[in-house]
Structure formats: structure tokens, C-alpha cells
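Design review, sub-item: ligand-bound model
Attendees: FS, YL, KQ
YL presented the inputs for the iron/sulfur cluster complex:
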Amino acid sequence: MGIIGSGILTGLGVTLRHFVETYIEDFKYMGKKAGVQPRMLRRQSPKAHGIVTVEYPMEKLPVPENFRYIPFLVKDDKTNEDRCTSCGICAKVCPPQCIWIARTEDPVTKRPVPAPKDFFIDSTICMNCGYCAEFCPFDAIKMNTDYEIAYYPETENDMRLVYDKNRLTMNESFHWNIHPSVKAAELEAKAADEAKAKAAAEAAAKKAAADAAKKVALAAAPVVPDAPVASVAPTPAAGGAAMAARAAAAARAAAAAKK
Amino acid sequence: MSEVTATPAKPAAKPAAPAAHGAAKPVAAAKMTPEMSAIAAKFGGAVEAAQYEGLLVTDHSKFIEIATYVRDVLKYNQLTNNTATDYIKDGVIEVVNQFTRVPQGGAPLTLKLRVPRPSGNDKTQPVPSLCPLYPGAEFQERETYDMYGVVFEGHPDLRRILMWEGFNGWPLRKDWKEAYYEGDTKPFESRWPGGDHKLAEERVPWEDNVNYPPGFDPFAFKPHPDGDIYDSMLAPSDGTVSIDNGHGVAPTLIEGLNASEMAELKTDEIIVNMGPQHPSTHGVLRMVVKLDGEKVTDLKLALGYLHRNHEKIGERNTWLHNIPYTDRLDYITGIYNEWGYVLGVERMMGLKTTDRVEYLRVITGELTRLASHFWAIGFLLNDLGAFFTPALYFITERDLIIDLLEAVTGSRMMCNYMRFGGVSRDFTSAQWAMARELAFERLPRTIDELDHFLTENEILKARSIGTGYMSADRCIAHSLTGPCLRAAGIGYDVRRADPYGYYDRFDFNIPVLYNGDVYDRYLVRVQEMRESLKIIQQALNQAETQSKVGDIQGGKKAYNHRVPAGQCYARVETPKGELGYYLVSDGNQNPYKYHIRSCSYINLNSMKEMAVGQKVADSVVILGSLDIVLGEVDR
Amino acid sequence: MATQTTNIPDELKNDPRVPEDLNNNIFITTLDKIYNWGRKRSMWPLLFGLACCAIEMICTAASRHDLSRFGWELMRASPRQADLMIVSGTVTKKMIPQIVRLYNQMPEPRYVVAMGSCATSGGPFKEGYNVVSGIDKFIPVDVYIPGCPPRPEALLHSFVKLQEKIEKQSIRTVRWYTTGKTDNGMLVPYLGPDLVDLRRADEIKQKTAL
Ligand code: SF4
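KQ shared the predicted structure:
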């Protein structure tokens, strides 16, 4: 131990250094504009010296792409349909159980149709864990990065915090905007899926045709293949192929869920 | 330094399929370890192999004798974990005690007791309390009493601890249902496919999260007096401090007065309540101190102001659901909490991880350790009176670590990073570069600065040297773990004592100091930060050569895990101490029993002994040096 | 100055009440505006953390986000000097009597921000037996922030919102200046076999009658 008081002086020295460093850093970049990283990025990185404040409403630190807040549903831009097939996996993996999904039913056959009729997320229960986005097999639900959702109720019984399907649904472009790095991967996967679906559809069609031909040749019996119509019919539109792929994937997911 | 004496605890349970629901029949009897055989040989008729793991003590009257033997002959000198399990099908409540050897470590020894399940809200038959042998049992047994209504005979102060006195029911019993009860297990039926949003309030008769027993009259009812705790402390004392904790019991002498003059100078004892809203109780802790002048003569803690029913919710969740909940235990070290839980489930399921996963776990885990120690030291200094300047500097550093974790995992504190057999995301190259920058440039510099800034500070030294002393023996007896135990000269660290992860691949030390006071706890933390940095640096280097980028999931990724029936006690060394998860599975998608051995909670057990005899201002410092987080204390 | 001010109106130009040399130096603003302007920029929060969200609140008060820029200055450890209560975390039944008491001890005007899912409705722990489903069951909340936990920026955003709300208030209508509407605070619930909300005592008695 040195002289009494030296410890305190050293401490004060550190404080002083922090103070000075803050300003030195500012002086270094005075007048420079071009080619310099925005101030708060530069000043909040591990390389920065001194202490500096982000002046929040005026400047904002960018949120990382992975950042998760309240989920949203992705709508396909082209077909204007939800990617969601209402398979219910997100509702199952949600730890606080804040997702409610109503499945659409075919009005005639009463069989479920792979699209949600309604979709609720209670944002007052949501714990922003991101499981729904992670386990969704269709990339249909994603985590929003918008954190500026504080509000004050203007009417009584203001239920703004319970997000319904309308409020949840966002365009694909919005999703790609906030998650730029997944765009390429998603497009690729989609193209691959479509190609696969197309190939499958073609194969199925060929097989059905061959079967039919064989059967016709054998017994001339009326053959109505029970295979899904969509896969027999030639599907020229990419949207149709995508639909087929989705239906197939939905069936897969449902099977997985049953397991 | 502690030695590695045993291999990682292997789950004794075999995947016994098909599982008996609710464990109606013993599924797999425990494997006998040499220690267990020794007990069985000595106490023949009184014990038998328990279900899954450990020994079942059938003759309760022999229990204390057996525990004494376990402590004195077998040298299991610390009671790690005490809890209970409600086997409703068998009609029993099983009390579980787990003992460990400190500092040698190794697999814990389990002793169980069974009592018949009483009907309704009755308490159980008494079982012997371990408090006389292991003072560390005090809070744990109170919790077991609070949650299951198990009565411990010989406990000095058996009151409810997390809930309040007078609460209706024993919440963790399987047949006790809360107001918002919707189903035994998640996922709930009402969510899909016919989900229609309904607030929980709209579902229940009281339209709120409450339930009253029939016949309850709010006008006639007298709430349990809050002042009870004061009254119990006001019991006349002879002015001496009965606990011998090394501070001595001599009354403070005022300079210039001799002893007889001192005796005439009588001060009244006063009782001071601190908290639950108090700036220096680190959240919502409440402490009641009895003062003789400035000196603390008695201290009682009132907990439970943040009791969020983690364990009850955990038993309803699926295995996967629990991971993000563990983040909210000790919210400063989210990742480490997940690790403990995931480790337990992986052991039960026999899942394999990959190299990459293990390295990423070490890197993120040690980063949270650094963040946590920054926080702890900053706020210790706050408690010492250095209002906010050190804390601000360290929050700045912590923010950088948090930034990295956020970029990788997606959230600043509630990372939800671990998966069974894997982690959720890999680092991108930019994130990896930032991690390297932090580990090799920024943080070493900061820690040096911290050391320079504080360690030799005279005020810090004057306030903390000799404050809150506790001897090594008492620390062990009180089940203290973490930096506080290591500051008392015991090199017990789960990373070495019961190894997990890839810690055996790194070269690092377990810092040990010998004075057992607040200053040494601070120094141990500083040294631990340096060791953590060493680990991170090695892990970053090794991961680059010895693991494959993107290989972040061992086995198949799934969300509906079924864990084979069995029991597991998994523990990790969090920055605060030994965090353990006691898990029992009955082969279903949900844990049958989910208990957290919370280090913050159990460390508080020794608070009284540390503070008695010290000045009241020091009690705040002692609390700061224990470094508790209320989320984990109350769960 | 951020308040909207107007130059002295013409009809006041020749008003004998205004000294001549001040003719060009007087600004007129509504009392409301100046009052709200002063108030919204000197809101001192109560130092009071409950759970995980409190850590983010501390981070907001630290140097990176620096709460004081908003004039929210120091966190006060005593309710007597506080204008704002940030309920930062899970409200448990065991804690709610104390929170209501703290709220009652704060002088008016007082504001409450419910930070995070837990304070808003119980959040992920809503189903828990010791958790209150939202602080607004017991005390009036001005601004809600969903999120678990909200980022520091989200907390700052709630301050912006609160300022917005204050701006809309008028001295004439706010409760604490209108006679006959003194607020005696909220009834403090007590802990019986479960949390007893005294406002519902009659109902409870009826329903539990054997
Ligand atoms: S909202 Fe989330 S972060 Fe905030 S207190 Fe609740 S659990 Fe913790």
C-alpha cells in the first residue's frame, strides 16, 4: 500500500481520463463528415473511448437483425395470401401460450383449409422468446424489430394490446426490409421448393397417366385417381405450384405435429 | 485449487420405457454407489434403494443418525439441495436431500424420505429437520414447507417463506390449482385449432387471479399481522449476541469509558425495517434488523416479494417451454441459467452436442459471467457509497457485451439461446470479430482499469476489509457457494468439481482467497473475470480450428421432446454460485418435477450470521457482496 | 423554448397595463402550455425496481441512454419527491399492498408507467398463483409498454408518449385541481387466504357465503 490517499487519487485520475477521452474522441472527428461512421455507431463500439450518450429520439442505435420483439405474420406479396397455413405449431411452442389460432374450414366439405381464419397474439403475455418464428415450418411468422409501441389508452377497454390478424399481417417486403440477410436464403428455398413441387407434380401426373393407361389397357376400368387433384392437373402458374407445395408441407407438418 | 475427483454425474436413470404415468410403480431403482452401499451396510433395515436415484430412508427415526454418518464419516459436508416431490398416484410426498463434498465435488448423494400425502390442505406428518446438522437447510426446508406443507421437526423457525402466512394451500402439490388453471399441461387445447382470444380473467369465476375458500368473510377476517416478524425479534434478549461468528460478543466500548460506565449507558434496542422498496436491497428484498445503537444484533429476511411461481409453471410447461423461463430466473446471467437446465435435460435424454455448440456455450456463458461480475462490482460499490460512478462505467462495459449477445441471440437479457443438443444461432463473421475485439482488446483493458480504479482505494478497503467475515467451515455448513465461498479459502467450483461442457479443454485457475470478508469477495470476482477472459480467448481460438461453423445442433431439432422417465440433478457454476436443476420426468412432454436449486436464495441463508455484530451500514455492503438477484431468490 | 408562443397580440399593444418598454418583449402563452411544459420536463421517477425490467430501467438511467436528458433527472428513493412511478417488473400479490401504499404516498400530480408485459397484465407469469394480472387492476396506469423486457429505447419512447399525454391535459380538467374530487388514494389490498381487494369485499362475502 502506498501513501494514504493515493488509491483515491488514482481513482479520480481514472474518472478524469474518462472525461477527457470523451472529448478527445469528439475533437478527432470535428468537421469531418464524409466517410465517417455515424456518431453513435462509432461511439458505442468496443473500439470507442470515453462515455457518450445516444440522443434517443433524434438518433437511434440500429437494432440488430436478429432482434426480436412482438411477432408478425408474413403475407406473400405476389399472391396476397398469408404464408401461414394454421398448422398450429407456433401456438404449441409458445411458452406462455399467448397465440390463439382459428383454422379456416372449407364451407362445403368442413375440412380444414391451410389458412388461418383468425390469429391472435396477446402482446401483454408475449415473452418475445422467438420460438414461433424459429419453429414455423413455412417462415410465416417472424419477429418484428419495432420497439416503439408504448401507448396510452385513449378509450376505455382499449384492446390495442391484443393483436388480431389484421394488425399482425405485414408484407413480405416489410419482412425482407428488416431481415435483409434472410431474403436471399428464403428466395432460394422458395425456388427450390417450387422446383421440387413442380417436379413432384409432373412425376405424379406422369405416373397417374401411366397408371391410367396401364389400367385402361388391362381392364378398361374407370379410373379416377384418388390423388389430390392439384398434383394431377398441370399447374402452369408458379402460384399454383407454390400452393401445392404448401399443401404438401402442411400435410407433413400436421403429421409431424401428430407425432 | 480443487481437484477433479469424479467424472460428470451420470444420470442413474435408464430410459425406462414405457413410462408409468405419475410414477405409479418404481420404474428404475437406483444404482448403488460405494457410499450408498456403505450406508446400506451400516443401517441395513432403515434404508433401501430409492426410485431413480439415491437411498430411501424408510425408518425416519434413524434419519438424523444416517445424516450424521453422511456428514462426519462419508464427508458429505454440504447440503446442496432440499426439496420434495409430490407423487400423487403413490399417495406420498417424497422429501429429497442432496449432499455434496466440498471442495472435492463429484456426484451428489441423495437421501429421500417419504411421507403419506395428507388430504386437502393439511400438513404432512413431521419429518426430521436437518437444520441442527446443516444450518444451510434452514431456508430450503422452509421453502419445502411453504410449497408442499411438509413439516420439519426440529426446525428453528418453520414459517412460510415465499408466500405469506395464512395463504390458502400448498401451491406445489399436484392437486392444488390456481385461479387461472387451464389444464395440467401445455399446450392448452383452447389455443388451436379453434382459438379465440379470451383473457384469462374472462374465464374464471372471480374475474381475477384469486380464489377464496368457501366461508371466507373479508370483513371478519383478520390478516396475519405483518408486525409478527417484529414481535418475534423483540423477544427480550440479554444484549449479547448468541451467534459465535468470530466478531466477538463484547459490547462496543466508547473511548474513555470503562466497562462499568458502559453498562450504565443503556441504549434501547430498535427494530428497523428495510425494503421491500429500498434502494439498496437489490430489488424487493426485505430485511428487518434489530439494532443496538449502530450494531446489528439480529436480522431477519422476508422473501417472496418476487415469487413468480416459476416451478409451478415449469411443471406445466413442456420441456422446451422452460428454456426462456429460466432466463428470467437470474436475469443478469440468462445464458448460464439456460445452460444448467439444458444440461440436465440432455443428460436425461442422452443427447449429444457438437464441438461448435460446446464452444459457443462456453463463450456466451463466460461473457455473461463477465457481465454479471461487472454488474455485481458496480453495485457493490454503490452500496459502499460510491454512488453510481463505478456502476456507470461498468454498465457501459456490460452494454458492449450485451450488444454482442443481442446481435447473436436476439435479445439483450432474455437470450433464449440454448436448445436441447444445440444453440439457436451461430455467430456471423462480424459478430465473431466483435467477440474477438472484446475478448482480446477491450475487456482486458477494462478489467485492468477496474483493478487500477478500485482495488487500492482506501475507502473501499476501509469499509470492506474485515466486514462480513465468515469462516470456511461455516460457509460450507451454510451451503454457501460461488465467489463468497472461494473468498473464504475453499476452492469449490462446479466447473472443476462436477465438470460439464468443454471446461476441461481450457487452462484456467479457480481463484481462492482466504480472508472471507467483503474485500476478498470483491478480489475473487476481479480475478475470476480475468480467468473468464482467458477461457473466452482460448475458446475463440480453439473454436476457429476445431469446430465447424454453423454446426449448431446435435441431433434433430424438435419441439416436442419426450424425456425418458428418470431423475437428474444438473448443476452449473453461475457467477453467483452453484445453480442446480432437480428434474424428474415421468416420460411425458412435461417435467413431473422441476426444482431450481437457487444459489442466490441459499446464499442468503448465511446473511444473518455475517451481519450480526456488524454496523447497520455494513449489512447493506454484505448484501451487496453476496450478489443476489431477486428473480432467482424468489423464483 | 419548445412551447408555442405568440407575439403580443395587437389589441394588447396599446394596453395601458403593459409598460411601453416591454411592448416587444412579451410573449403570451396559455397557462396550460407553460404549465405542462414545465411539468413534463421535470418528472422525477421513483427509484423502485421490481424484476428483470428494472435492470433495463437502470440501463436507461446509465450513460448510454441517460434519462436525465428528458429532465427526469434522478430517481428518487422516496415517494414524497416523486412524480412518476415506473412499475418495472412482475407485480406479485405479496408486493401489491406496498406498491399501492407507495402510490398513495406520492403527491399529485402523479403518473404511472407500466413497463413490460408483466406490469401490463402479468405477462409470461400471468397464470402464476402469486402474480397480479397487471398493475392497472389496482392503480391507474398512464402509459403501457409491451415487451419482455422493453429495450431501454422502448422505455424512453414511453417517456415521449407520456409527455405527449401530459401536453394534452388542461389545468381546468385535471383531477387534482378540481374541487371536490380529491383523490384519497387507492384502497390498499390485504393478504388473506388470497389477495383481498377491498373494493370487492361485498361481492366476495356474497359469493363465499356457505
Ligand atoms: S416483462 Fe419480462 S422482463 Fe419484464 S419483469 Fe416481466 S418477465 Fe421480466
